[in-house]
Amino acid sequence: MKVLKKDELRRHKMETQLRREIEIQSNLQHKNILRLDSFFHDHKHIYLVLEFAVQGELYKRLKKAGKFPEWLASRYIRELASALSYLHRKNIIHRDIKPENLLLGLDGELKISDFGWSVHSLNKRRQTLCGTLDYLAPEMVESRSHTSAVDLWSVGVLCFEFLVGSPPFEDTRSGTYERIAKVDFTVPPHVSPEAKHLIESLIQYLPSDRMSLDRVLIHPWIVEHASGRNNEGQNS
């Protein structure tokens, strides 16, 4: 149950954002997207009844582990790419993909949650600066219009973070802005060449240069681990 206070929503002028979140999430059906079953309200609160993600937040799992083994990171990226591909086919951009917005289901499967910054974008291009700095694409930090390609950038950032333990552009606030704009990052040598190729194919300055989600799903690094190799202890 997600409980929201009406007076806080009014104070922060977030009524429209919440209506959009409910409208979008209540119409989504995908195994890697947290389901919104229903919602109701009283005179003080709005209540969202959400699918229960049994294993909790992926963020806490990552912080506890430090970083993920490549087979597990590959699994999460495959599930994330599948869910985002579904959203993009429905002309929905999530715009706030980060570990805190990813939950884990009964079998440890990834589930995208929190559609507060999501938008249904038939015209394909948006202007609003939103999301979390470490995961923002250059076109957002430079206040240019953006498309669903911002989600592709975030997938690359997450892949890096899963394998390294921290986002690739982590710095002071101004330093992070500058590094994102310059695409200033280095993949550490312990990351496999296949994973490095995927990361560098997604973290591209030009949106048109970023690898598509369809190609992510058939990337050698994804296919290798999806075949079941190197997955010992996956459910431990």
UniProtKB/TrEMBL annotation:
This protein's record includes keyword Transmembrane: no
Top-level taxon of origin: Eukaryota
InterPro entries membership: Aur-like, Kinase-like_dom_sf, Prot_kinase_dom, Ser/Thr_kinase_AS
GO cellular component: chromosome passenger complex; kinetochore; spindle midzone
Alphabetical list of SUPFAM superfamilies matching this protein: Protein kinase-like (PK-like)
Family: Belongs to the protein kinase superfamily. Ser/Thr protein kinase family. Aurora subfamily.
Name recorded for this polypeptide: Aurora kinase
Species, as recorded: Actinomortierella ambigua
Source organism phylogeny: Eukaryota, Fungi, Fungi incertae sedis, Mucoromycota, Mortierellomycotina
